[in-house]
Amino acid sequence: MRERAEFLVFGQPLIEDADIGEVVRSLRAAWPGKGPKVSEFERLVREYKGVQHAIAVNSCTAGLHLSCLALGLVPGDEVITTPLTFCATVNAVIHAGATPVLADIDPHTMNIDPIEIRRRITSRTKALLPVHFAGRPCEMNEIMRLAEQHGLHVIEDCAHAIETTYHGKHAGTFGTCGVLSFYSTKNVTTGEGGMVLTNDDSIAAWTKVMSQQGMSMDTWQRFCTGEYKHYEVVEIGFKYNMMDLQAAIGIHQMRRVMRCWKRREEIWNRYNEAFRDLPVGLPPEPKVATRHALHLYTILINSETCGINRDDFILQLRRRNIGAGVHYRQIADHRVYQERYGWRPKEWPNAEAVSRQTVSLPLSAKLSDRDVEDVIDGVRHAIAGRRQRRAYPSEARSA
C-alpha cells in the first residue's frame, strides 16, 4: 500500500482561480462587506433552486434560527426533528425559545422517519424540521401530508442538500422555509455562510431585515448609492448578514455546481465498486425520481462483522494520512441535552445504532484519482486481516 506524504483533509473544498479572482476584485473594490456580490450570489441560488426568495446569511445556523423566529415560535411550542444531525439543528430551535422533539430515523436512509414523526405530534407541535441527511431527500410527500393534516409549518434543513431533488422539485422549496449551508466542507462553499429559501414574501422581507440588525436598509444602500436616506430600526434584529468576500467565492461555485456534482458521482460509484465485497454497510442507491446531492459517503463499521470498531477504523485511516468524519454522534449522546431534556440515546434505537457505526469518507470534487485510490486502499487495509469475514446481512449492507 502506498503511504501518503500529506494528510488528506476531510471535506476539503475545490477552490479554483475564478473564485480567487472574484475575491481579489472585491478587495480591490474596497468593499468587502455586504453589497452587490451578495445580491448576485442570491440571484444564482434563487434561480437554481427555483424559489422566489433567497436571503444570504452568515451561517446555516443563523438561517435556521431566523426561520424558527419567522414562524412566531414561543416557549412551550415544540418542533420535531431528527436525532441524527449536527447540533445546529436543535440549537436553532432552542434559541428561538421552543423545544426540540426528536423522532427516530429510518435506518436504511438515515433520514427522519415519517412514522416516527406522527408518533411525536402533540397539541404543542408547531413545526417539523426534517434534515436531508448526506444529501438524500427525506420523504417529503409524507412529511408535507402530515404537516397539512396537523396545520404545521415545515423548515427544511438543507445543509447537505443544495443539489437534492425529490420528484422533480428542489429540496428547500417544499416547506415554509429551506436553509442551505455554505460551510467549508459543503458542496458549494463560501467558507462560512448560509441562505434562507422561501416563497413567502412577508417572511422573506422580515428575514432580510432581521439579518441586518433590524434596519430598514443595509450598509451598501446607505453608503454606496447616490440616494441618501436615513435608516430606521424597525425590529430588534441580529448581525447575521453575509458579506461580499464570502459571496465572491460562492458565485463561481454556483456556476459549476453540477460539474462538481458529476465529479462526486464518479467518486461515489468508484467507492461502491471498490467496497462491494467488504463487510461494511454501504449507502443505498438513490430512489427513483430523486437526486442525491452526494454530500457525504457514509459507511457503517460493525465491529462484529468488520473485526474493528468505528473509532479504531478512523484511527487506522488517520495513521495513513487519510481524514474521515463522523456524521453524526446522535444528539442525545451529548451531555448538555441529556441534562436539559433528560434524553437518553436508547430512546432512538435506530439513530443510536447508526451513530455508533457511521464513518464519512472523503468525497469532494477536489479529490484526484490518486486520492480516491488512497482512500480505497486505506479502507481495505483497515478491514483486512482483522478477523475472518462473516456473511453480511443484505439489509445491513444497504443501511
Structure description:
It is a single chain. This protein has 399 residues and is α/β, with parallel strands linked by helices. The protein has 2 domains: 17-255, Type I PLP-dependent aspartate aminotransferase-like (Major domain) (Aspartate Aminotransferase, domain 2); 257-397, Aspartate Aminotransferase, domain 1, CATH 3.90.1150.10. Helix content is 40%, strand content 12%. It has 16 helices and 12 strands. The chain has helices spanning 17-28, 36-49, 60-70, 87-95, 114-120, 140-150, 201-210, 219-223, 244-255, 257-275, 303-306, 310-319, 335-341, 349-357, 369-383, 394-397, and strands at 53-57, 78-81, 99-102, 125-129, 153-158, 165-166, 169-170, 177-181, 194-198, 290-291, 297-300, 358-361. The strands form 3 sheets. Strands 1-9-8-5-4-2-3 form a 7-stranded mixed sheet, sandwiched between helices. The chain has a 3-stranded antiparallel sheet with strand order 7-6-10, with no helix packed on it. The protein has a two-stranded antiparallel ribbon with strand order 11-12. α2 (36-49) runs parallel beside α9 (244-255), α3 (60-70) packs parallel to α4 and α10 (257-275) runs parallel beside α15 (369-383).
